[in-house]
Design a protein that fits this description.
Number of strands: 0
Number of helices: 75
Helix content: over 70%
Distance between the termini: 100 Å
Structural class: mainly alpha
Strand content: under 5%
Shape: elongated
Length: 1593
């Protein structure tokens, strides 16, 4: 602090310092702020005195100025005394004596300013002595001690003899008199004062007696409280508290028990603020620390009990003993020495002093106080009183009287609540202190819940102001907190009380499920850990649940169910958690558990729903089994339980459905299993691939027929449950979102969710997602009203373009909407006009269809590229996708079957003697009603189908526009309509097959039935390989129905002539668009149709064998599923059946250990195939193999990427078509096919034209050679020309000969390059094969030295000598090989070399045909074969000349020679051994239409010497087994060693090989491997092309 007295003032004291000091003091004493002024004056005086002590100022100068200053303030002498006191202490400590002297002189000089008494009080006795104010300091000290003792420590001794007992007697009489009169406390108080004075009574003892009397007369609060209050004015405030403390102290002995009256008196005094709680609290026992320790001990004990209960103890007696001991211990701990704090708390609650009670409760651990029953009951009573008026107004149920609760007499009790807002102030607080101990008062529990219900009613009714709404929101959150902290925990502690549970549900059902589930979650996972009591209860519940579940069986469902019910009323979360954990482990518990849950309350069912969702969402559980290929069994069990429980009991579904939707949103489709089960059980709609054809047929009828004959289980009484499911979906707007999410998730499964998962699992998930979509969509279609459905499902373009729903799913969802729309429009039109004629009705129906479908036709245009609509019209597309089997055919046999069943049932009922008559009557009535319903339904469907067929008849002319080609039209039809839909569902598969047949029967323009069927049967490998398991099953059904139709036509000429004879679908000439007429010769005749069917069967066999031999899981599984489905109609031909049987047998052997599921499939199919064997027929019975008459044209069918068949009318054309089938890109294919049409037309119109190059019939063979060369060589030219198909054939023909040779040479080089490319191995296995093969060829080349002339001449001789069989064999092997390889040449090959179409060339072909036929050619198309032979001979010879530049001549000759020998031997051996097999193989000519010319020439080259002849021994035909090959090899080896010894080449070769047959056999094997390798690479190439063409589509 800065000095107030500057040094200058002291120096110039007399001049001006003195005046300055006086001015300063005056200013300070006038300061308004008293405290600041006081301190500053103190400092100023101190500084002045200090200058004196130091000798800077004389003491008389200081005393003078102090005399002037002393008048400024009243307390100036006191301030001065304080300053002296401080200086006294300071100077006494100093060593300098002069300073002490200065101080003494100053004090002496100032004695006239400060009185002696003040100085004696403040200065040290020694100083006083030196100042002369006292004589002796020692005496002074003794005197002061005596006075202090007398004042503070000496107690007033009451002479008890002087206190007269009469006084106390009078006092008690005064206090104990009848107080009901006009006696007031003031009057009595005066009397008490008189008694104290008169009888010398001790006032404290009087107060004690007043308290004692008050204890005995508690009803006189109004008298005693004012009396004590008045009396306390005469005493010190603490006295009352001390006296009460002594009273409590008296009862603190271990045996003592504090009387309740004392607690009450203390409580009342506290309530009237006569004592402070803090003052009294310290007198009470036990201490707070002891209470906290006790609380902790309780928690530990509870945990120990839990641990003991969860431990496995073998001897049950021991546990019982332990429990008894525990109970005794608990009893002991419940009687503590006497907790006075709790006693006081109880008293406070009873009189309604909530404020003080709350303070005491806050000092203790949470819920410690209310865990003592008396306190809990007292608090409950207080709540009763507080809520009474509000409860009477809004809470009492109608018709209930109830017993009113009287309010507390004292006015200081909490105010009673009149409104919900007032509840929040006090009552909610009280309830929170109660916590789980509200369980002691079920009546109060019910009252609180009813108030909650009343509040929710008010809360949910709108129309209140914004402020009110905010208040209500706050109240609502308070109510939720009360529910969480008080109501649910209390329910857990109640003895099973179903009424409370139902009462609580009354309030809960007004909460949204999100709030309810949140509450259940807290209850289950947190509440039980917060209180020792609840910890025990949880353990006991689990213990009891285990006991019940161990004994639960189907037989004791009722008693066990009652026990479960009892247990569930109080602790549902814990019980259900345990039950669900058991169900997840043991799925055989599901049925008994579902049946046993019938004694639950509504609240419990709701909790169960929550527990199920929580179990499903458990993040610790894996959703897949350890092998990662199947869904975990716990999830399957839970899903199954869900379905059963939700169907049987009225549980709210919203939460579960929302959970599934959320999982789908997150891209997880595992949980669709739950939705699938729920819909199946609740709506009775089941999705299974195991349906029989009878069931499928029934599914195409009306709803009644579906229910009776379509499902596995007889599904009854699903009306209520399906209604509940529908309501849940509509109320929470989940119907469409679930559909869309499922539709999108199908691709999500593959591209997002699939990821690292096993292919098998991805397929399963995809199927599950798809099946659930179909099932769910079916449920919505059959259960939603028209308005609901139309309101929710958007139009098709919105579904596809905005929601990105796949087209098949989008139409699936929209289809019921169209049907609803059309029927409602039709009904409207019928009502408008009453015309009853059938024609009128049909006309109205067609009108309504047009009205409804017109916007759909517009909408679908945006779904595909404009190019698509060149071939098929939007109307056709929409018609296909909007119809169902119900619209196309009536399943009469199904209706009859069900009606007959009912008749049999009725007969059985009549015959049953035991059935009581009234039941008989009921049952018969039920059957009759069902029968009538079915017949009515059949009639209705029949009318509907007739109307639909009429509509289609009118529409059909605009269906197929075929602006490009018929082939392209079929491609679009298959790609956009048939294939996506036939794998959508089993019924859709049947629908697709029926629809194709229908389009054929309607004689639809531009629709080639033949092409369509051919494309479907020819290329099933790709479609089969890309299916999931269930899709394969549906695809199999589709093929089965297609085969059924084909087989029907194949079986009987009459049927064929009637259903196909002159239908445009069986025209074999593909004319330019716009000209569809044709004579009988253009139609495919019956016998050729049989050839075609045989070809299709062969194709199916080849594809099946290919798939079975890939070794890939999906290929094998899917083809086995497909084969099982088409078993009724395929295989029909014996040798094809045998080939399949061998392959399947091989699969059985290979997969037995590796993949048991494939083994099971293969075994199943194998068994069924064997049982079909008696029904198979030899090939010659399946189709006639004699050459047909000249004009009976063989139907050769060309196979493009989709396997497009093109029947043509002329043999040469046929040959060309077969030689040059297309596997190029789609663009090429489209254009080339367009060209073919034009050419065919031209050729047909001018059958006898000789072409411009002037070749005569005699050189037709040479021309054919050239033809072949060109085909094999000019791929690039073809591509160019194909791209400009406008040129006429004549123009193309001109000047062609001159260019032939260079083109051929170029072609050979191209081919060589391509061949090398094709041979590049695509896998490690193939690389190994190639290495082996190279090694073998090197060895062989080193052994053989042969001249090119020899080889050439021998080759020619052999050609002459050998019957054409051998060439057939070579050709057949090649053709099959090519069918397996990648086929890549445009169709237009046939246009390249203009061959004369004269009679002579045909006659020559006839001769050759006869020549071949003498050797029993098994080909159904001899013309084709002949031409092929010539072509192959010529091109093979020609090819030899062109291979020399690329191979060394000598090596080539060696190989060539060796090959010829071998081929001769093998073919002879084969003729004897495998006559039938060869016939079978020859049939494959129709396959060669998809060959690549460079492939065929390559293979010819190989036959003629570039690779070994061992190719002949490769089992190209599916009917050759590998084992057969080996046998043949051995026979061939032995023959080769003996037969041709005279042949120099053979001899030379044999000399060089130490054991020729061994080497050769090894070489044979290696060549076989090479051959297999090329087949597989060819297949892969073919697959690539297919994929690329798919993309193009």
């Amino acid at each position: 602090m800065a000095a107030l007295l500057p040094a200058e003032w002291i120096k110039n004291w007399e001049k001006g310092g003195k005046n300055e000091f006086v001015q300063l003091c005056r200013a300070l004493s006038e300061n308004k702020n008293h405290d600041v002024g006081f301190r500053d004056i103190q400092q100023a005086l101190y500084e002045l005195a200090y200058h004196v002590v130091r000798g800077n100022l004389k003491h008389d100068q200081a005393s003078n100025v102090l005399g002037d200053v002393i008048e400024f303030r009243e307390d100036m002498p006191s301030i001065l005394a304080d300053v002296f006191c401080i200086l006294d202490i300071e100077t006494s400590c100093l060593e300098e004596k002069n300073k002490r002297d200065h101080f003494t002189q100053l004090v002496l000089a100032c004695l006239y300013l400060v009185s002696d008494t003040v100085l004696k009080e403040r200065l040290d006795p020694e100083t006083l002595e030196s100042l002369g104010l006292i004589k002796q300091s020692q005496q002074f000290n003794q005197k002061s001690v005596k006075i202090k003792t007398k004042l503070f420590y000496k107690q007033q001794k009451f002479n008890l003899l002087r206190e007269e007992n009469e006084g106390y007697a009078k006092l008690i009489a005064e206090l104990g008199q009848d107080l009901s009169g006009n006696i007031t406390s003031d009057l009595i108080l005066e009397n008490i004062k008189s008694l104290i004075g008169c009888f010398n009574l001790d006032p404290n003892r009087v107060l004690d007696i007043i308290l004692e009397v008050y204890e005995c007369r508690p009803e006189y609060d109004d008298f005693f409280v004012p009396l004590i209050e008045s009396y306390m004015y005469m005493c010190e405030p603490q006295t009352l508290c001390h006296i009460l403390g002594f009273k409590f102290k008296f009862y603190q002995d271990p045996s003592g028990e504090t009387p309740s009256s004392l607690y009450r008196v203390a409580a009342v005094l506290l309530q009237h603020n006569l004592i402070d709680l803090e003052d009294l609290y310290v007198h009470l026992l036990p201490g707070d620390n002891a209470i906290i320790e006790e609380h902790k001990r309780e928690i530990v004990e509870a945990k120990q009990i839990v641990r003991k209960l969860t431990m496995v103890v073998l001897s049950s007696e021991k546990t019982e003993e332990k429990e008894k001991e525990k109970e005794k211990e608990e009893e002991k701990t419940e009687k503590p020495p006497d907790n006075q704090k709790l006693g006081l708390l109880e008293a406070l609650l009873k009189i309604g002093d909530w404020h003080h009670a709350q303070s005491i409760m806050d000092q203790m651990p949470p819920f410690y106080s209310t865990s003592h029953k008396p306190i809990a009951i007292a608090l409950c009573q207080l709540v009763h009183v507080t809520i009474e008026p509000l409860y009477r107004r809004v809470g009492v149920p109608k018709g209930a009287k109830g017993s009113p609760v009287s309010s507390l007499p004292n006015k200081r009790a909490p105010k009673q609540a009149e409104s919900f807002e007032e509840l929040r102030k006090e009552v909610f607080n009280m309830l929170c202190y109660l916590g789980p101990h509200l369980s002691h008062d079920p009546i109060l529990f019910a009252k609180v819940v009813r108030l909650g219900k009343a509040f929710m009613k008010e809360f949910q009714s709108d129309g209140s102001k914004q402020e009110d709404k905010e208040k209500m929101e706050t109240l609502f959150s308070c109510l939720l907190s009360i529910t969480d902290q008080v109501l649910l925990p209390s329910l857990s502690l109640m003895d099973c009380n179903a009424c409370m549970s139902e009462e609580l549900w009354g309030m809960f059902k007004t909460f949204p499920y999100q709030y309810r589930y949140r509450l259940y979650g807290q209850w289950k996972n947190e509440t039980y850990n917060s209180h020792p009591l609840l910890v025990k209860v949880k353990a006991q519940t689990i213990d009891r649940a285990k006991y019940i579940m161990k004994r639960l069986t189907k037989e004791n469902v009722k008693p066990s169910g009652r026990q479960i019910g009892k247990l569930s009323h109080s602790n549902p979360t814990i019980l259900f958690d345990y039950i669900l954990s058991q169900i997840q482990k043991y799925d055989n518990l599901i049925t008994p558990v579902v049946d046993s849950l019938k004694y639950l309350t509504s609240l419990n069912y709701d909790v169960l729903a929550y527990c199920i969702i929580e179990a499903l969402a458990n993040p610790e559980k894996e959703r897949m089994k350890h092998d990662d290929t199947t869904i975990s069994s716990w999830l399957q069990s839970l899903a199954s339980f869900c379905g059963a429980i939700f169907r049987k009991y009225p549980i709210e579904l919203a939460g579960l459905l929302q959970y599934v939707a959320n999982q789908l949103k997150a891209g997880k489709s595992f949980d669709l299993l739950i939705l699938k089960e729920v819909v199946q059980k609740m709506a009775g709609i089941e999705i299974t691939e195991e349906m029989t054809m009878e069931q499928l047929e029934a599914m195409t009828g009306g709803e009644q027929l579906k229910a009776e004959g379509g499902y596995f289980g007889q599904i009854r009484n699903t009306k209520k449950s399906s209604q509940r499911l529908k309501d849940a979906l509509l109320d929470h707007d989940l119907a469409l979102p679930l559909c869309l999410l499922m539709a999108q998730q199908r691709n999500g499964v593959v591209f997002q969710e699939g990821g690292e998962k096993h292919l098998k699992l991805v397929g399963k998930l995809y199927d599950q997602c798809h099946d659930t979509l179909v099932q769910f969509g079916g449920f919505l279609a059959s259960n939603l009203s028209t308005e609901d459905y139309i309101k929710r499902v958007p139009s098709i373009d919105v579904l596809c373009n905005e929601f990105h729903t796949p087209h098949d799913a989008a139409f699936f969802l929209s289809r019921p909407m169209y049907a609803h729309h059309i029927s409602s429009k039709y009904d409207e039109l019928k009502k408008a006009e009453k015309g009853n004629k059938q024609q009128h009705k049909v006309h109205k129906y067609i009108t309504s269809c047009e009205l409804v479908m017109a916007p759909v036709h517009e909408a679908v245009i945006s779904l595909h590229l404009p190019k698509v609509w060149d071939d098929i019209s939007p109307q056709f597309y929409a018609t296909f996708w909007s119809l169902t089997m119900y619209d196309l055919a009536v399943p009469h046999s199904s209706y009859d079957r069900e009606v007959n069943k009912l008749k049999v049932q009725m007969k059985a009922i009549d015959d049953n003697q035991e059935m009581p008559p009234n039941k008989k009557k009921k049952e018969k009535e039920r059957c009759t009603a069902l029968q009538d319903k079915l017949l009515e339904e059949e009639k209705k469907q029949l009318e509907h189908v007739q109307r639909v067929l009429q509509r289609l008849k009118l529409e059909k002319d605009n269906w197929l526009l075929a602006k490009s080609t018929k082939n392209e039209t079929i491609t679009k039809f298959l790609q956009l309509c048939i294939f996506p839909r036939c794998i959508f569902s089993a019924i859709d598969a049947v629908y697709c097959a029926h629809f194709v047949e229908l389009v054929h029967q309607q004689k639809t323009p531009n629709f080639s039935t033949l092409l369509c069927y051919d494309r479907v049967f020819s290329d099933i490998i790709y479609t089969v390989a890309s299916c999931t398991e269930n899709e394969a099953s549906r695809y199999g059904r589709f093929l089965c129905c297609m085969l059924e139709t084909v087989t029907r036509w194949h079986s009987d000429r009459v049927i064929y002539e009637k259903e196909c004879g002159n239908y445009p679908g069986f025209l074999t000439i593909l004319r330019a668009t716009g000209f569809d007429g044709g004579n009988k010769a253009d139609q495919l005749d019956y016998e050729n149709f049989r050839h075609v069917v045989h070809k299709w069967h062969y194709k199916l066999t080849k594809a099946s064998v290919h798939c079975l031999e890939t070794g890939e899981y999906t290929h094998i599984r899917n083809i086995l599923i497909v084969l099982t489905k088409i078993l009724p109609w395929y295989p029909k031909v014996l040798n094809l059946g045998q080939a399949l049987e061998r392959r399947v047998h091989k699969i059985c052997q290979e997969e037995k250990e590796k993949r048991p599921d494939l083994y099971a499939l293969a075994m199943g199919y194998s068994g069924q195939l064997k049982s079909r064997k008696p029904f198979m027929i030899p090939e010659n019975e399946f189709h006639h193999k004699d050459p047909p008459a000249r004009n009976a044209v063989p139907a050769t069918v060309q196979n493009g990427p989709g396997g497009a068949g093109m029947p043509t009318s002329l043999a040469i054309n046929t040959v060309r078509l077969e030689e040059g089938a297309t596997e190029e890109t789609d663009k090429l294919k489209e254009k080339s096919q367009g060209v073919v049409k034009v050419i065919n037309k031209t050729v047909n119109a001018t059958p006898k034209v000789t072409t411009s190059n002037g070749n005569s019939a005699s050189n037709s063979k040479i021309i054919k050679e050239k033809d072949d060369k060109e085909k094999s060589g000019k791929e690039k030219d073809k591509e160019k020309k194909d791209k400009t198909p406008a040129a006429t054939p004549e123009m193309k023909a001109l000047g062609k000969d001159g260019k032939d040779k260079p083109k051929e040479e170029r072609a050979n080089k191209d081919e060589k390059a391509r061949e090398i490319k094709e041979k590049t191995p695509k896998s490690d296995k193939e690389k190994e094969k190639v290495k082996k093969e190279e090694k073998a060829s090197k060895e062989e080349k080193s052994k053989m030295v042969v001249t090119i002339i020899e080889s050439k001449s021998t080759a020619e001789k052999e050609r002459e000598k050998e019957p054409s069989r051998e060439r057939d064999l070579a050709k057949e092997i090649k053709s099959k090989e090519n069918a397996k390889g990648g086929e890549k040449v445009p169709v237009a090959g046939s246009l390249k070399s203009p061959v004369p179409r004269s009679e002579t060339s045909e006659s020559e072909r006839e001769q050759k045909r006869r020549k071949v036929d003498t050797h029993s050619s098994p080909s159904h198309s001899s013309t084709v074969k002949d031409n092929l032979n010539e072509l192959k001979d010529s091109s093979a010879k020609h090819y030899i000349n062109h291979t020399t530049p690329t191979l060394s001549k000598s090596k080539e000759r060696e190989v060539e020679k060796k090959d010829l020998d071998k081929s001769r031997e093998r073919s002879r051996e084969r003729e004897k051994k495998d006559e039938k097999d060869r016939k079978d193989r020859k049939r494959d000519h129709s396959n060669s239409d998809r060959e690549v010319p460079q492939d065929s020439t390559k293979r010819r080259k190989e036959e003629n010497g570039t690779t070994g002849s061992s190719k002949h021994s490769k089992s190209e035909s599916p009917s050759d087994s590998p084992r057969l090959n080996e046998k043949e090899k051995e026979k061939n080896k032995s023959k080769s060693s003996g037969k041709d010894k005279g042949d120099s080449i053979k001899a030379e070769k044999m000399e060089k090989s130490s054991s020729g047959s061994k080497k050769e056999s090894r070489h044979d094997k290696e060549k076989t491997e090479k051959k297999e390798k090329r087949d597989s690479t060819g297949g892969k190439e073919e697959k690539k092309h297919h994929k690329s063409s798919d993309k193009h589509r």
